[in-house]
Amino acid sequence: MRWWSSILLFAAVLRAAGPQDFGIAELNAAIAARDFKIKPKFMAELDLNAPETYRIETYQSGGAHITGGDLRGLMYGLLEAASQMRATGKLKQTHAAPALMLRSVRLRAEPAADWFASEIFWHGFFESMARDRFNRLQLTFDAAPQEGELSTLRMIAETAAQDGVDLAIGLGAASPAAVARLLAHCPLVKTVVLNVSDPMADSRTLLDVLRNAGRRVVLESKVGEIASSLAESAAPVALPLRRFAVYGGSTLNPEPLDLYFHMDGSQDPAELDSLSGAGFEIAVPRGADGKPSVESIAAWGLRGYGPRTPAP
Q1: How far is CA 136 from CA 16, 63, 66, 119, in A?
Q2: 196, 223, 249, 303: least CB-packed within 10 angstroms?
Q3: Please, which residues have CB within 8 angstroms of residue 197's CB and are 6 or more apart in sequence?
Q4: pLDDT tens digits for 197-218?
């Protein structure tokens, strides 16, 4: 499917409906800010390359052909083109691919806070995540979300999807019935994270809930006894599992692709260069206004995605 700038110029003034629309709006805005006498044309479309990859192929007459391996990759290509346009007023041939597939941030849910139910806040938050190449938010709860909070979570998940971000829900404790209710009300939630220290007495029932959710739902837990027990129980039904561990230094051996690391914001983002496995997750700090902001950890997302190189 192809998108032309001349068709989607309206995306610069209307709220984006999907990752590609957000990227096109950003590029159109960057071009408009340059006040060209003749605006450069660009074409954006999907290609057959790997997910999250992109290519920018420039035209001699100006403008470019921008492709992505999926909608998120296409968005990243458009955002890169917008960045180049703002910096230099022209585009250069570029291609990029993610170094780490999971580039996640973690945020404690605060349903009572004004910003938590604000669609405007979440639009800005997820747009910042996309620009910084973070591709997932884990929103954590002490227990399961209350029934009255599910509509807000659905809004958050839908807003995240518009900017190419996945939403995972972290649970400190939850009954299988509460998890079933969450998944039924929030169809875009495809990852449940168990932030628990003790094995669940009814883990088998929880696995059945996830298996019968009507879509692929990944279950995550910390490396240790719980993860081992869940893996043994999930094996007969082929339920997808992922593990996480606290990062304490360089990894000497390649890690499996079903494991990622919790990073500390006091560490150097260069630590990501030594990671293997699925990727990483880092806590979201507060901005100057007291609201969650990824501004101060932007380097983590950009470094986790990896370098941009000239297209051959």
Answers
A1: 19, 31, 24, 17
A2: 249
A3: 226
A4: 766 667 788 889 999 999 999 9
pLDDT the model gives residue 306:
92
Q: Convert the chain into a string of H (helix), E (strand) and C (coil).
A: CEEECCCCHHHHCCCCCCHHHHHHHHHHHHHHHHCCCCCCCEEEEECCCCCCCEEEEECCCCCEEEEECCHHHHHHHHHHHHHHHHHHCCCCCEEECCCCCEEEEEEECCCCCHHHHCHHHHHHHHHHHHHCCCCEEEEEECCCCCHHHHHHHHHHHHHHHHCCCEEEEEECCCCHHHHHHHHHHCCCCCEEEECCCCCCCCHHHHHHHHHCCCCCCEEEEECCHHHHHHHHHHHHHCCCEEEEEECCCCCCCCCCCCEEEEECCCCCHHHHHHCCCCEEEEECCECCCCCECCHHHHHHHHHHHCCCECCC
Are the C-beta atoms of 36 and 12 separated by less than 8 Å? no
pLDDT digits (tens, 9 = 90+) for 9-19: 333 333 458 99
AA identity, residue 285? P
Q: Given strand 64-68, what is the order of strands in its sheet?
A: 2-4, 42-46, 64-68, 54-58, 94-96
What are φ and ψ of residue 227, in 5° steps?
A: -60, -40
Residues ≥6 apart with Cβ < 8 Å to 237: 207, 208, 211
Locate tokens 């605060």: which residue? 110
Asked if residue 135 lies in contact with residue 102, where contact means CB atoms within 8 angstroms, the answer is yes
Q: Are strands 259-263 and 241-246 parallel, antiparallel or unpaired?
A: parallel
Strands 54-58 and 94-96: antiparallel
Vertex 262: Cα angle to 257 and 268 (nearest 5): 110
CA–CA gap between residue 29 and residue 41 (Å, rounded): 13
- Which residues, listed in sequence order, are joined to residue 292 by a DSSP beta bridge? 286
- Confidence check: pLDDT of 8 > 70: no
